[in-house]
Amino acid sequence: MDKFLSMPVDGQTNFLVSVSDVIAITRTNDTTTVITYNSSNTATITHASVAPAGREFRDSLQSAMTAALATSWTNVVAAYVPPKVVTDIVIA
User: Fold this and answer.
1) How many CB atoms lie within 10 A of CB 22?
2) Using one digit for the tens of pLDDT, what is the confidence trace for 24-35?
3) d(CA 13, CA 16)
4) pTM of the predicted structure, to 2 decimals
5) What pLDDT was estimated at residue 58?
6) Would you tell me which of 18, 80, 84, 92 could form a disulfide with 47, CB atoms 3.0–4.6 Å apart?
7) 5: which strand partners?
8) pLDDT tens readout for residues 34-92
9) Radius of gyration of the chain (CA)
């Protein structure tokens, strides 16, 4: 069964981000984190700036995904409160 994180996006309703089949979570710059899925799809998350070498957003997202996957199969959606404001999510 698929699992999702319910992620707040500034000025919008929460966005459901899949935690299934994730192969990488990459910090591409100070304001962008990309989730790459086994299907080659991606979710690009734009957020408030983190320190130039900071990985707090990526690490927080990874921890939330790990925690969601460790819950019962009946818990399909887990709430996620990111450490920085999320301004956009693009699925490709």
Assistant:
1) 18
2) 999 999 999 999
3) 10
4) 0.91
5) 94
6) 84
7) 17, 78
8) 999 999 999 999 999 988 778 899 999 999 999 999 999 999 999 999 999 999 999 98
9) 12
CB atoms within 10 A of CB 54: 14
Amino acid type, 9 = V
Alpha helix (H) residue ranges in 1-92 = 56-69
Q: Give the Cα separation of 10 and 53 in Å (integer).
A: 24
pLDDT greater at residue 15 or residue 54 = 15
**Counting runs of H as helices and runs of E as strands, what totals does the chain give?**
1, 7
Q: Are 46 and 31 in contact (CB under 8 A)?
A: yes
Phi, psi of 13 (to 5 degrees): -80, 170
And the tokens for 14? Answer: 């929460």
Residue 16, Ramachandran bin (φ over 0: left; ψ between -120 and 50: alpha; else beta): beta
